[in-house]
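Service request form, structural biology core

Requester: graduate student, group of Dr. S.
Request type: structure prediction, single chain
Budget code: on file
Notes: please return the result as structure tokens.

Sequence provided:
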Amino acid sequence: MTKTIATSGSEGPKVRSDCHITLEITKTGGLQIELLSKVKTLYGDDILKQTKEILSFFGIKNAKIKVDDKGALPFVIAARIEYAVHQVVKTDKEYWPDMLKQNKYKSSAERFRFSRLYLPGNTPNLMLSAGIHQPNGIILDLEDAVAPAKKDEARYLVRNALRQVDFYGAERMVRINQGQRGIDDLKFLIPHNVHLLLVPKCEDPAYIKKLDVEIEKIKKVHKIKDPVFYMPIIESAMGVEKAYEIATVSKNVVSMAIGLEDFTADLGVKRTKEATESFFARARLVNACKAAGIQPIDSVFSDVGDMEGLAANVKMSKSLGFEGMGCIHPRQIRVIHENFAPEADEIDKAKKIVNAFIVAEEQGLGVVSLGTKMIDPPVVKRAQKTIDLAINLGLISKNWRTEDEKK
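Core staff response, request fulfilled:
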């Protein structure tokens, strides 16, 4: 036991969907629970029952605990109480809430990653409905979005969110911390069906290999077979120089992003909407990703009120070869999807190429041609990707060939 009194959670008039816990271990007196909550009449008994259950799970029989509830859901209350317990009781036990059935789905390396929505890892009210906005990925952020003093506590909340928040089919992502703290994050994430880890300020391929080793240890203990993918974030001049090495260091690296706020700071220049100051770095990252066969992902667009500027930024990203970008507000998702989506002429061209390839295969031809032009395998592969994307976005039907024939 390191101390007898601990606190966790958030307090203040602006706090929503959270709670503040004060826990004091005593020698006698049993469990003395003080509950403050506007919903005490409706849910007070449930909160008291949950509090007793968690304290009993950790073998605590004598304690004073104050729960100042601001509308927190059970998974939030559980995370806050457990973190307080771990400050005052020496134990390796973890209190895991049940995993929602709808959160047990898998991801894949080839999954489309047009949009990924960042959510602060210690702010539960922003997590609850994020999935209804239909981003391709939801990022629970343990790094820059969490104050240093709250990083350890945020791990418990993110772990519980992975189990209890409905992601509505979005890829389940977490941005870990840097260095050893990022390694320490893993035990709170890997057993809970995290699909992809964002690795911030990545400069050293060896760090990715270290993640591989540590993750395999955890997977072995918990009998996990599904892969955990990586999206390293390049945020420095050194990272840009090592982009290809990072992209190819592990089979689990399926995409790579650039973070322009930190990158421009590293260069000592101002970030602009025109992004001419980062053109070289973005182009080089795209080239490294394409050479490695992974997805290049652009930085976030920080002006959440400028939808026209965002649309122009997405079109520029697409023209450079990027296949997605980050979002810091749900209203950005639709604009990103619409502008990364293939245009009608792109889809028509892809249809013709894929159709010519299918016909050539059916006729046993070794050469594929469209009009007077020969079609190489990489061109067919790119066209098929456009078709798959158009189907995924609902722009064309899975039965497009049959429907086109009828026309």
